[in-house]
Amino acid sequence: MTARLRRSAPPPPVRVVHLGLGAFSRAHQAWYTDRAADGDGWGIAAFTGRRPDLAEALSAQDGLYTLVTRGADGDAFATVGSLARAVPGGDHDAWLGAVASPDVRVLTTTVTEAGYLRAPGGGLDSAHPAVVRDVAALREDPRAPVVTAPARIVAGLLARRAADAGALALVPCDNLPENGRVLDRVLRDLAGAVDPSLLPWLDAAVSTATTMVDRITPAPTDADRAAVLAATGVDDAAPVVTEPFSEWVVSGAFPGGRPAWETAGAVVTDDVTPYEQRKLWLLNGGHSLLAYVGSQRGHATVDEAVRDPHCLDLLQRWWALCTPHLLLGRERAEEYCAALIERFANPRMRHALAQIAGDGSQKLPVRLLPVLRAERAAGRLPDVAVTVLAAWLLHLRGTGAPVRDLRADELRALGGRPPAEAVPAVLATLDPALADDAELVAAVRSRAGELSGRR
Ligand SMILES: NC(=O)c1ccc[n+]([C@@H]2O[C@H](COP(=O)([O-])OP(=O)(O)OC[C@H]3O[C@@H](n4cnc5c(N)ncnc54)[C@H](O)[C@@H]3O)[C@@H](O)[C@H]2O)c1
Ligand SMILES: O=P(O)(O)OC[C@@H](O)[C@@H](O)[C@H](O)[C@H](O)CO
Q1: Could you give the CA distance from residue 285 to residue 263 in angstroms, rounded to a whole number?
Q2: Which residues form the Mannitol dehydrogenase N-terminal domain (predicted)?
Q3: Residue 4 falls within a domain, yes or no?
């Protein structure tokens, strides 16, 4: 007999709002909240980016879903109950109501790296057409339905100030270094453009945490749904598959309180930076390397790519390059890399390289460039970084994984120029200083020629 997920008791009271309901937030923040010692007092109202599908599927099962923890040798199944409400992102009134609720003390986000809409200098890209539209709409009417993540959060904060609902902690959970500073900056830029009187209120009422998040969570597939049904008898329309490994490192102030995430394994610290570097350079940098080089070599998933000795050798050279620059030190880096090999090689995860390859313009600056810059400053030209940049260029020229990027049209046009022009033009989109580095430009051009000749 097929069972469906339904609650037999009311959900936990909503005290957390989440923006960017997808796979990862359900494998990570919702799971930590569910397992926290006081989790039954902290329900989450989670909003999708825009599409209603996932919210509708979850609402039909009272916000419950199956978390499949997929080890190399088998699956474990658990029902997660912390999602008290799942709401389509288009329901702006519901969003404003949730953020303005005095019961709510925490707002978490997973809106992707691109979702923060930063300009190359790090502030809000105020010339982005969607930002321009949202700013104009909020100036006209603070309750106007806006679409960008920064504008939705500012709209929610305007509603919260109007409701005098008290302190709120923002907790960004995207793969960005100093993600608290990133979020704070784009929100202040947008608030300043809409209603500068919000800025002193932000100082008084809103704190922004910084977090390092780590748990590999591929986009769920129909096969995952079928596996849940076969193993548990539950016809779950929205399960999530994740790996056994999980880390969450959080720093910041929570004047209105927060779930006791540390009772579920989160680390609370004063400084996230050493953990962020380790994770963003070794794991995410390694992922991007495999996504561009591996997909050029015909691989579809991370586990396939790491079984290719050429990709594995590059990955290990990348890790060796990063290690001396890591604040956590060699020993902790080597432990992490040893675990990473197992995590990447898990043959049952099927993590698509095409998913990881998306938004390289937003990811490479945080995953690759810090180490490349440190090496260039020391007078070295790291061969493995040259290879990743060359593989990214070839990806933009139409080989390997398909191009999905916040700046896809511009990047395709630049990448499609003759190689002598394409290389500096594409590198300049990551950092103009790269295009002025003649030795690097020549090396990337030569490596791209070698890689395309080899296919
Ligand atoms: N999946 C992972 O393994 C993993 C691990 C660590 C961190 N993360 C972080 O979480 C993010 C989301 O990953 P996911 O696996 O949940 O993806 P997902 O596609 O399942 O969900 C992404 C959610 O963000 C929303 N979104 C996308 N672009 C947006 C935008 N421009 N503005 C507002 N909302 C937007 C989507 O509508 C959706 O609700 C990643 O980009 C990454 O920064 C993911
Ligand atoms: O989720 P993205 O698109 O930022 O990056 C793809 C992967 O590198 C990433 O999701 C990792 O799986 C994750 O960061 C592991 O903790």
Answers
A1: 30
A2: 15-262
A3: no
